[in-house]
Amino acid sequence: MDKHFRLETDHDNIAWLTFDKAGTGTNVLSLDVFAEFEQHLAALQQQQPRGLIICSAKSNGFIAGADIESFTRISTEQEAMALLQTGQQAFNRLEALPFPSVAMIHGFCLGGGLELALACRYRVTRDDPGTRLGLPEVRLGIHPGWGGSARLVPLIGAPKAMDLILSGRTVDGRTGKRMGFVDMVVPERHLAAAARKMILETPPVHRASTLERLTNHPLVRPLLARILRKQVARRASPLHYPAPFAMIDIWRKHATDKSAMLAAEVQSLARLVSGLTAKNLVRVFFLQEQLKSLGKDKQYQPKYVHVIGAGTMGGDIAAWCALRGFRVTLQDQAPARIAPALARAHTLFKKKLKQPVKVREAMDRLLPDHRGNGVARADIIIEAIFEDVEVKRSLYMDIEPRMKADAILATNTSSIPLEELTPALARPERLVGLHFFNPVAKMLLVEIVHGQATAPEVSTHAMTFTRQIDRLPLPVTSTPGFLVNRILMPYLMEAVILEAEGVPAILIDQAATKFGMPMGPVELADTVGLDICLHVARVLASHFQAQIPASLEQRVSAGNLGRKTGRGYYQWKKGKPVKPSPSGSNWNMEEITNRLVLRLLNEAVGCLRERVVSGPDLLDAGMIFATGFAPFRGGPVNHIHAIGKQALLKQLAELQKLRGDRFAPDPGWQDFS
Ligand code: NAI
User: Fold this and answer.
1) Given its phi and psi angles, is residue 525 left (phi above 0), alpha (psi -120 to 50 degrees) or beta?
2) Which CATH class is domain 304-478?
3) Which secondary structure element, helix H or strand E, spans residue 110, and what is its range?
4) One fold for both 5-274 and 485-671?
C-alpha cells in the first residue's frame, strides 16, 4: 500500500498524503496509483483526521496528468471506460470525505492532476511562473474525463472554464486565483503553512458569481455553445479534431447535472481515446519526447554564445539565447547593423518576461560586439551571415585562430553543404549546422546538420545546447535543403504551378488547410519571402534536376517578394493577406490536394531512401515541428501508412501521366514498408 504514497499525521491530527510515484521523476496517474490512492482514502475515512493535505514529493511538480504510456495500450472502448471510471470513483470519494481536503500544488498540475485537485475542497499553489495549472487534454485529441469539466464549470462559470478546457492552455497560480479555482497563492516558504491554515480555519469555499452561474443556465447554454463552437472552428475542424466539439456538447447537455456530466465525460472520452486523432496526437507527444531526449548530455554546460550576423536570423537567435539565460555577444559589420536587432530583442523580452527587472537583466546579457571580441571566450559561435560560400569561408579563416580549443562553430546556413565550408578550417570537426527556422521565437525545431567531418561529440553538444534554449533538435545529414526545406519545396512549387495554371491562390490554400496544414502553401511562400523560396528552390533544382516555375522568377524580378514588400501572390495589408473570394467553382479540389500532398510525400520517401534522417519517426517529427504538418495525421510517413502505399503509388502514376515526370515515384517507394 505504500508504493506510490506516504501517509503521515501531524500533531494537529492533519493527515499528509504525499504522492511520490515509484520508479519515475514525475507523478502521473495510472490504474495502480488509483488503487493505492483509494486504499488510503478508505483508511482515512476510518481514521477521521482533522483534514487531509495532498502534496507531491517530486521537485518538478504536483501531478503532470495521466500516464500517457498507458493510453497507448488501450485498444477498446471498454478498457478506456474502466480506466476512466476508476479515476472518477477515486475522485468522487475524495470529494465526499467528511473532513476538509487541500491540494498543495507546486510545478506541474495538469490534466488528471488538476482534476484531482478540483475534487479537493481547497487548492493552494506556490507563487512562481513555473507552477502551471491546466487541462491540456485537447492537445492529445481528448478532453477531461475524471470530472475535470463537471467540477470546473460550476466552480468558475462556463466562459472561463471552457476557455481553459478548449484551449488546453496552462496558467500560473495567480491567474488560477483570479479565475477562481485556486484559493491561495503563496511563496514556497509559506506553502505548507497556507495548506494547514485552510484545514484549521476552513474558510468558505469559492462560489461562482451570479453572472458566472447564469452562464450554465439551460436557456443560456444553446447560445453560448454556438459561440464556443464558432470560436473553436476557427482554429480546428470538427472532422480532424472532434474532442473540443464533444466537450461543448457535453456541457450544453448536462452542465447543471453533475452525475450526468460525469457519465457523459466517460462515454465520450472512451470513444475519443480509441479514435485515430487521439492516437496520432499521442504519437506527436512521444515524438516530441524523442527529440527532447536527444539533447541530454548533462556534462555539457556552455555559458557564452557569440552570434555573427545581426540580420533577420542572427539577431533573433541572439535574442532567444539571451532570453534563455545565456551571455551573448552579437557581431555584425557595423554597430548600426546591430541596433535594430537589439530593439527587436527588447520587444521580445518585454513580451516574454513582463517584469522590468527581468527585461533589464536579459538586455544586460545581450551585448553588441561589432569588433568580435566575444569570439575568444565563446563556447558556441553561431554564424548567420549572408548565404555566400566565399563570404562564410573568409569569416571562418578570420575567427578560427581566435576560438577556444573546445568551442563549437555552428552555421545557420539553409542550403550550403558543410563540406563546401570546411576547406577554410584547420579543425573542420568543430563545424556543425544549427539550422533555425524563421521566426526563431515561434519555430520549435532546429536541424542539427552533421557534415562528414563533424565530430560526434560536437553534434551531441549542439543538440544539448538546442535543448538548453528550449528548442527541439533534429539530426540531419549535410545534403541539399537538409530535411525540412527539401520536403517542403516540391509542395510549395506545386502550389506555384497550380497558381500559374489559373487556380485561385485562395483555393490552393484552402485545399491545404482542409488537409490539415496550419497555413496554405501560397500564403506560406509569401510569408517566408518569394526571394528566399526562389533561392532555396534554385539550390535544390541544381541538385535534383527540378524545374523552377517561371511565374516565381517573374514575381521576384518584379520585386514582389510577398509580405515584406506588400505584394506577392497576395496583396498584403497590415501584415495580413487580402483574400478575394475565388472566382469559378469548377476546380477539382481533390486533385489540387493530391497534387500538393503527393509531391510532399514523394520527397519524404526520397529523404528516407537517402537517410537524411535516421528513420521515419524523426522525419515525421521534423515535418510536424518545423512546418506544422497536420499533427492529427501523425506526420507524412504515418499518413502514407494510413492511406496505403499501393493507393498512393497508383495516384502518383496517374498524375505522372497527366502532369509530367515531377510525379514519377521516387525509387525509395520500392523498399518503403
Ligand atoms: P540577413 O541578410 O538578414 O542578415 C545577414 C547579416 O549578416 C547582415 O546584417 C550582414 O551585415 C551580416 N554580415 C554579412 N557578412 C558579415 C561578416 N563578414 N561579418 C559580420 N556580419 C556580416 O540574412 P538572414 O536572412 O538572417 O540569413 C542569415 C543566414 O541564415 C543565411 O545563411 C541564411 O541562409 C540562413 N537562414 C535564413 C532564414 C530566413 O528565413 N531568412 C531561415 C534559416 C536560415
Assistant:
1) alpha
2) alpha beta
3) strand 108-110
4) no
Ligand 1 pocket member 485 (CB < 6 A): no
Q: For residues 195 and 285, what is the distance between their CA atoms, to the nearest angstrom?
A: 34
Centroid of ligand 1 to alpha carbon of 452 (angstroms): 24
- Residue 436 phi/psi, 5° resolution? -80, 160
Fold of 5-274: 2-enoyl-CoA Hydratase; Chain A, domain 1 (3.90.226)
3-state secondary structure of 538: helix
| Residue with cell string 463537471 | 150
Q: Grid coordinates 516558504 are at which residue?
A: 189
Q: Give the separation between CA 358 and CA 348, rounded to whole angstroms.
A: 12
User: Cα(441) to centroid of ligand 1, in Å?
Assistant: 17
Q: Return phi, psi of residue 104, to 5°.
A: -105, 110
Hey, what's the cell of 62? 504536483
Cα(386) to ligand 1 centroid in Å equals 4
Rounded Cα–Cα distance for residues 121 and 129 (Å): 24
* CA 74 vs CA 77, 267, 509: distances in Å: 8, 15, 37
* Rounded alpha-carbon distances, angstroms, from residue 351 to 310, 354, 444, 576: 20, 6, 18, 21
pLDDT of residue 166: 97
Counting atoms of ligand 1 from 1, which one is nearest the CA of 385? Answer: 7
- Per the CB < 8 A criterion, the answer to whether 472 and 444 are in contact is yes
Residues of the chain with pLDDT under 70: 584-585
Query: Which residue shows C-alpha cell 481514521?
Result: 47
Rounded alpha-carbon distances, angstroms, from residue 276 to 29, 261, 442, 634, 638: 23, 24, 27, 9, 11
**CA 493 – CA 4 distance, rounded (Å):** 55
Nine-digit cell string for 291: 527529440
Residues 6+ apart with CB under 8 A from 503: 587, 592
Look at the block and give the residue holding cell 473570394. Answer: 581
| Distances, alpha carbon 187 to alpha carbons 62, 69, 167, 354, in Å | 16, 33, 28, 19
Task: Decide if 278 contacts 142 (C-beta within 8 A).
Answer: yes
Instruction: Enumerate the domain spans of the chain.
Output: 5-274, 304-478, 485-671
Instruction: Locate 585 and state its grid cell.
Output: 467553382
Tell which atom from ligand 1 comes closest to the C-alpha of 413.
32
Mutate to test the pocket of ligand 1, among 306, 307, 308, 313 (most ligand atoms within 8 A of CB): 313
CATH fold label, 485-671: N-(1-d-carboxylethyl)-l-norvaline Dehydrogenase; domain 2 (1.10.1040)
What are the tens digits of pLDDT across the range 43-67?
999 999 999 999 999 999 999 999 9
User: Terminal CA-to-CA distance of the chain, rounded, Å?
Assistant: 46
The residue written with cell numbers 505522372 in the block is 656
Longest distance between any two alpha carbons in the chain, whole Å = 83
Minimal CA–CA distance to 597: which of 514, 505, 478? Answer: 514
Pocket-testing residue among 306, 373, 386, ligand 1, by greatest number of atoms within 8 A of Cβ = 386
Residues 6+ apart with CB under 8 A from 358: 349
Angle between the 276-293 and 616-627 helix axes, to the nearest 10 degrees? 100
CA distances from 657 to 117, 503, 661 (A): 61, 20, 8
Q: How far is the CA of 404 from the centre of ligand 1 (A)?
A: 24
The β-bridge relationship of strands 5-9 and 14-19 is: antiparallel
State the pLDDT at residue 584: 65
User: CA angle 248-104-12, nearest 5°?
Assistant: 135
* 217-264: pLDDT as tens digits: 999 999 999 999 999 999 889 999 999 999 999 999 999 999 999 999
CB 102 within 8 A of CB 136: no
Integer Cα distance of 546 and 312 in angstroms: 28
